[in-house]
């Protein structure tokens, strides 16, 4: 029985220590989000603030199957004027603290007739993550630019549309 009591006491002590270490009041993580539907794509942006800064996760989801988005690596004016890069920026009470990254690999879409390679994501959704920090109280806004295409057609591009995070 002595070993059992010692084990129970050790477990209770560990639980109490963990509980005390995590009892600094309310969680320091808050989520704010916003949504946009434009250009055949649903865009959902979620901001998670934490003690080490924040992360803005913006998911671009084409509304029809077979559509892809252009890469964040596409030059601002496209390649030979073709394509529109996926861009996630912040303004208002947010500042970007690093470069954006995407959760999907980039592949080159070859257009033989024009001798052009365009960097695109696979068909379907892609999430772009941007490290951010809060600069104070006030509105937090995400500004997005993107274009969605299929093998045969492109949807109207969306340029500098604002998503308010609430």
From TrEMBL:
Record domain Thiol:disulfide interchange protein DsbD N-terminal: where: 56-161
Domain of life: Bacteria
Alphabetical keyword list: Signal
Signal listed as a keyword: yes
One Pfam family of this chain: DsbD_N
Secretion signal, residue range per the UniProt entry: 1-23
InterPro entries: DsbDN (IPR028250), DsbDN_sf (IPR036929)
Protein name, entry field: Disulphide bond corrector protein DsbC
